[in-house]
Design goal:
Elements: H1 14-20, H2 27-40, H3 44-65, H4 76-85, H5 98-125, H6 141-164, H7 181-190, E1 194-196, E2 199-201, H8 203-210, H9 212-236
Amino acid sequence: MSQVQRAPHRFAMQGSREILALTAGAVHIEQQIKALEDAVGTNASLAFDHAKALIESVCKTILRDRGQAVSNEDDLPKLFGNTLDQIRVLPDAHTADRETGRSIRKTAGALYTVVQGICELRNRQGFASHGKLAETQPLEIVQAELVARSADAVVSFLFKAHRSYAVPAARPKRVEYIDNQGFNTSVDDSHEPIKIFSLSYRPSEVLYNVDYEAYVESLNSYLSQEQETDDETAAGSPKVPA
């Protein structure tokens, strides 16, 4: 008995399509969603390009809605971090629950690693990335779907949080990892490198990307101690005669 062949199930960006209902006239984002859905089953390399572009568009839209300047020079991880800083992640009834808020932000912060991974895949395997050898074999539907579902989770969370909760009170400017080399070195000197297989990562960089809030708290403590040391040194210095 012959079996009837069924057409492959078309991939759908469920979370992303839900946000379209919250945004009137988001034609460009709708086109990006459709292009990513189509690419998943036909061109994995192109799917990586579309996934990165979709996250960029959503981040820029949210920042614009919240009155924040957007620089075209910012890479996607920085754009994502700035966007996450501008949205609330908890409803009013839980805003005073610091531990829950920290846990939610830690979970949301893990998406930063997802975004970095998508960027790296796009740069290495994307259709529009740097030229590759003619014999280069592209990745397959499995990898394309992983990236598409990850992008779907990122943009769905960001946009729903953006539209569900009011603009938060003014938040301090995001602390940049590269601006705190003294603290980073202190963390790295007091902890062993993080090793995963043959790869090695700086402890300070892992802390910054995995638990941004803990990084900032530790940085503030470090700076306070540095200031106290400077004050004690200044107080103990001999006065210069007038």
